[in-house]
UniProtKB/TrEMBL annotation:
Pfam families: Amidase
Domain Amidase: 24-438
Domain of life: Bacteria
Signal sequence segment: none
Protein known as: Amidase
InterPro entries documented for this protein: Amidase, Amidase_CS, Amidase_dom, AS_sf
């Protein structure tokens, strides 16, 4: 096994035990970037010199016998919305031409302090306002979309061009590309990971979180991003030697999450839910509250908030935006304050309804997206009942509820469809329940083979 193929957990352990040099790992990842980047387009910029400097510093600290954190000496990619002092934050847009960040974002600070080496800035759909990331190609099929808006981050991890990566998620932008590329994506509880220095899309809905090749890796990355959150104890199973998920109540949706879902996706997710039950969980049928209002509430918050942030540039240089993003930003200027307040009220009502739901279950298991990666340029998804749906609407539909409630959501791969494309299952929890999701996800991946492999 080459160092670039190692999971975050195995690489960090090897560094701690002095079996692997951070320099060796970073060199291997950079070589892998050189090999796959021409085909995949995961990176907006590769920061080889910076990565080598950080790797040498990490190696010196390891040699001095200092206590090393969970990501020390590993190679990370940051979505190109995340500020790193002295580097451009391009946000996938001509609007940011010539921009250089003056200071590190909070997450960049924390990862650098934890000993991670930045190997590059990963492509994003322009200003995170889209679900395909057109600059980047799917790691499994170059003719298909990577997903978005953190598409570059997901493809870098899936292909071994980063040990782990960070993305942002306003309506699924971590989970969608992770699901479409067969890796793990965690949208943490709202506010758990700080957003200082991250270009916003929607202040009410934005999250930052890790994309990794295993659920265990996601827990390690979260412990570096959110000091005080303990990966070893959060959501730990009760002792007693029983099945790993004994006592866990898994909500199985009767509505919303399985409406208009590809049959292959539904079958894989239901089979994975059955596997959780075999591991000791108890299935509980649940009614998803206020599903008919999800899209209106989500768009009622995101669209005007995005337009408010971009207002000055939209007035002075609208031609610098891509056509799709410009249309959304211009539409947002027509949303009234009253409409935005109604959306906030709907969000509050929805969060309360979901809190009542979580009084009876510990998590909800559902598809991450209703369909696997579509072909590049495809604009609509057709369903068996004759209905059609825009690709972006389809991809955000099942992810948006967790952004509205603020609870954590984890996607992990649970199979492939008839075309061999990855399928993701989403575990959704109550605010603060990140550890519960990670516990369930880790139990599943321990019972199923194949987690952590790099896409050839």
């Amino acid at each position: 096994m080459q160092p670039f193929e190692m999971t975050l957990a195995s690489a960090a352990e090897a560094v701690r035990e002095r079996r692997l040099s951070p320099v060796e790992l970073v060199d291997s990842v950079l070589d892998r970037i050189g090999e796959v980047e021409p085909d995949l387009g995961a990176y907006a910029a590769v920061t080889a010199d910076r990565a080598h400097l950080a790797a040498r510093r990490a190696e010196q600290q390891a040699a001095q016998g200092r206590p090393l954190g969970p990501v020390h000496g590993t190679a990370v990619a940051l979505k190109d919305l995340i500020d790193v002092a002295g580097l451009p934050t391009g946000a996938g847009s001509r609007v940011r031409a010539g921009h250089t960040a003056a200071a590190d974002s909070a997450v960049a600070e924390r990862l650098a302090a934890a000993g991670a080496a930045l190997v590059g800035k990963a492509h994003t759909h322009e200003f995170a306002y889209g679900l395909t990331t057109p600059q980047t190609r799917n790691a499994w099929d170059r003719d298909r979309v990577a997903g978005g808006s953190s598409g570059g981050s997901a493809v870098a991890v899936a292909s071994g061009a980063a040990t782990f990566a960070l993305g942002t998620d306003t309506g699924g932008s971590i989970r969608v590309p992770a699901a479409l590329n067969g890796v793990v994506g965690l949208k943490p509880t709202f506010g758990l990971v700080p957003l200082r220095g991250v270009t916003p899309l929607s202040w009410s809905l934005d999250h930052a979180g890790p994309i990794t090749r295993t659920v265990g890796d996601a827990a390690l990355a979260l412990s570096a991003l959110a000091p005080g959150w303990d990966a070893d104890t959060a959501g730990a199973p009760a002792s007693g030697g029983g099945p790993p998920l004994e006592g866990l109540r898994v909500g199985v949706p009767r509505n919303y999450f399985f409406d208009r879902v590809d049959p292959d996706v539904e079958a894989a997710v239901r089979q994975a839910t059955d596997r959780l039950v075999e591991l000791g969980a108890r299935p509980v049928g649940v009614e998803i509250p206020m599903g008919r209002y999800v899209q209106a509430a989500h768009w009622g918050l995101m669209v005007p908030e995005a337009s408010a942030y971009h207002g000055p540039t939209l007035r002075t240089a609208p031609e610098l935006y891509g056509a799709d993003v410009r249309a959304l930003l211009e539409a947002g200027t027509a949303v009234t304050a009253a409409d935005h307040l109604r959306a906030q009220r709907a969000r509050t009502m929805m969060a309360r309804a979901w809190a009542r739901l979580f009084g009876g279950v510990d998590l909800v298991a559902a598809p991450t997206v209703p369909v696997t990666a579509v072909r590049a340029g495809q604009e609509e998804v057709s369903w068996s009942d004759g209905a059609s749906e825009g690709v972006a609407d389809a991809y955000v539909r099942l992810c948006a509820p967790a952004n509205l409630t603020g609870g954590p959501a984890l996607t992990l791969p649970v199979g492939r469809d008839r075309h061999g494309l990855p399928i993701g299952m989403q575990l959704i929890g109550a605010p603060g329940g990140d550890g519960v999701l990670l516990r369930a996800g880790e139990a599943y991946e321990r019972a199923e083979p194949g987690f952590g492999a790099v896409v050839p």
